[in-house]
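Customer escalation, tier 2.

The customer says the design service returned an amino acid string that "doesn't look like it belongs to this structure." They asked us to rerun it and document both sides in this ticket. The original structure tokens are below, unchanged.
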């Protein structure tokens, strides 16, 4: 790396003593580049073995990369922590302005430890950390209002990032998210609960630092090449036009849209919650993360009349994408677009991860219908497919539980099903609820073996659609391919680029960009580093008790027809056995 690059500065914050320090770690960035590489090494070194994810010693690590702020779509921040949802590796990615704000503030990573004695938020600017009293923000019903208040009081208008939790994080719901800039999230694996456990309501960060490149002429040439590729790419155009919600009709067409807790891969009302329908009837605007020419973030405007006030309307802006449409739409049998948007609005306000919330409420609905739980547990709600009002109430109860059942719902579907029953239809992999793809075996194997158990780890759903629907491939070959993809993704999320641009950032482009950032690295070196980062993540998972366990795969996936005919238990078990041999230390 370049010797004068502030990327190697790690800001260390101690909430207990309300103190901070800056440590320079060129060694760490030289070895692991940035982002997920640096964060996973810090987690491995600094999270005490066996610690409770909600205890003060669990660190929150935020990291960006050497290309942040310098190239198109270099827009993401990596958060790493021990996950309160899964009990092992917690990793979440967020865009908005978060990455650029950390870069401009003069840091490559932030490590937060300890627990404040009262609710606080951090205001970081001019290389200083201010610990603000957040007692009046704690308990506010809307996450959006919290953002507005901090915006009105803190420095850095226009360039700052404000990352904050809602009531779900305060109340330690194990799948609470952290919201940045209103429409972006560290969505998955419960970072919001870790914030809450530390009495940390929010972080506001901004700065005006500059960062170096080694050859300005070559940099401009490369920037332009990447920019042109980004704006001319057909794939990027798809993300701009309809966003990821373009997938809803496509997946439904092939019978791969998880519907009513994966009772089916076809939803008869998919069209009215599809990207096309929402764009035609509700799309208000598109937004972009900082430094992104694509703008894939789609915001719907929902206009509702006030009760008893004809011609008076309130308009609510609600973001949507494929995963949200799946989780708060088809998975719960909601096909009415306004009902879907209203449920999403509630999930957003309280700060829940929509995927886990939707899948957990889907499990509860099926459990209720099968008599596994009753109205005593649900506190009078009769959960039913399509009943958005019931689900809005449930989302509230998960955050402010009226009884033990909702406290257990706040642990996610995996844990709740171990208490009440219905494991075979609790749609979680590695204790993390599945994303919106019932495409076939590669998708599910990808969820099971991915370090985060996320669709973004290795995109197995795409292997189903591009290869397995055409011809049968041995499960061992599928695993080898997914692992290779996941190893490469460690590089993309270390430099760190939005995954939507992964086809543009080829190994050659990455090597050229890193050279300008002072890294003398070949494509072979990148392969080696990607492998090492992936192994570091698994080292942490195994250390914290993760097991590859075929018996934990929900049986439902084998019962519901998928576009790949041979989605069988035998096939998945063979894949997991092969993976175990590959990954065990
Ligand atoms: S493509 Fe979308 S998610 Fe990715 S950087 Fe651009 S706006 Fe953000």
């Amino acid at each position: 790396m370049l010797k004068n690059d502030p990327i190697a500065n790690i800001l260390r914050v101690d909430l207990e003593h309300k103190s901070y320090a800056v440590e320079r770690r060129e060694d760490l960035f030289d070895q692991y580049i940035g982002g997920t590489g640096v964060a996973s090494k810090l987690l491995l070194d600094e999270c005490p073995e066996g610690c409770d994810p909600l205890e003060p010693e669990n660190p929150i690590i935020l990291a960006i990369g050497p290309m942040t702020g310098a190239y198109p779509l270099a827009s993401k921040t990596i958060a790493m922590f021990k996950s309160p949802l899964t009990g092992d590796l917690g990793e979440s990615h967020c865009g908005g302005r978060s990455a650029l704000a950390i870069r401009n503030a003069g840091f490559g990573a932030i490590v937060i430890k300890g627990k404040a004695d009262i609710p606080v938020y951090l205001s970081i600017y001019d290389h200083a950390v201010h610990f603000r009293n957040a007692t009046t923000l704690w308990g506010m019903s809307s996450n959006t209002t919290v953002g507005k208040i901090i915006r009105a009081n803190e420095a850095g208008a226009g360039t700052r990032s404000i990352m904050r939790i809602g009531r779900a994080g305060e109340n330690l719901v194990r799948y609470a998210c952290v919201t940045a800039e209103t429409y972006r999230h560290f969505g998955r694996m419960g970072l919001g609960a870790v914030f809450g456990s530390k009495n940390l309501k929010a972080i506001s960060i901004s700065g005006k630092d500059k960062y170096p490149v080694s050859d300005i002429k070559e940099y401009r040439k490369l920037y332009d090449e990447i920019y042109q590729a980004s704006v001319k790419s057909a794939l990027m155009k798809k993300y701009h036009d309809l966003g990821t919600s373009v997938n809803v009709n496509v997946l439904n067409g092939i019978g791969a849209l998880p519907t009513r807790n994966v009772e089916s891969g076809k939803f008869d009302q998919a069209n009215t919650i599809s990207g096309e329908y929402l764009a035609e009837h509700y799309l208000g605007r598109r937004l972009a993360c900082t430094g992104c020419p694509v703008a894939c973030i789609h915001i719907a405007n929902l206009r509702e009349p006030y009760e008893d006030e004809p011609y008076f309307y309130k308009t609510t802006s609600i973001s949507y994408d494929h995963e949200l449409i799946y989780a708060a739409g088809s998975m719960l049998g909601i096909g009415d677009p306004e009902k879907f948007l209203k449920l999403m609005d509630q999930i957003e306000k309280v700060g829940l991860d929509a995927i886990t919330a939707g899948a957990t409420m889907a499990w509860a609905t099926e459990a209720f219908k099968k008599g596994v739980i009753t109205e005593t547990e649900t506190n009078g709600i009769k959960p039913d497919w399509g009943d958005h009002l019931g689900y809005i109430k449930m989302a509230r109860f998960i955050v402010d539980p009226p009884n033990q059942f909702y406290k257990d719902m706040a642990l996610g579907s995996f844990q709740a099903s171990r208490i009440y029953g219905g494991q075979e239809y609790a749609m979680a992999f590695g204790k993390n609820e599945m994303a919106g793809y019932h495409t076939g075996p590669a998708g599910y194997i990808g969820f099971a073996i991915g370090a985060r158990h996320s669709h973004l780890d290795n995109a197995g759903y795409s292997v189903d659609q591009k290869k397995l629907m055409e011809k049968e491939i041995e499960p061992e070959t599928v695993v080898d391919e997914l692992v290779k993809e996941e190893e490469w993704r460690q590089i993309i999320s270390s430099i760190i680029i939005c995954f939507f641009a992964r086809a543009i950032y080829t190994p050659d482009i990455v090597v050229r960009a890193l050279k300008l950032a002072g890294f003398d690295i070949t494509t072979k070196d990148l392969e080696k580093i990607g492998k090492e980062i992936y192994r570091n993540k698994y080292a942490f998972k195994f250390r914290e008790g993760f097991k590859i366990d075929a018996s934990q795969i929900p049986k439902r996936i084998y019962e519901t027809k998928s576009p790949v005919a041979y989605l069988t238990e035998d096939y998945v078990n063979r894949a997991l056995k092969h993976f175990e041999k590959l990954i065990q230390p």
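Tier 2 assessment: The sequence is consistent with the input. The chain is about 40% helix and 15% strand. The chain has a mean pLDDT of 96. Sent an explanation to the customer and offered a walkthrough call.
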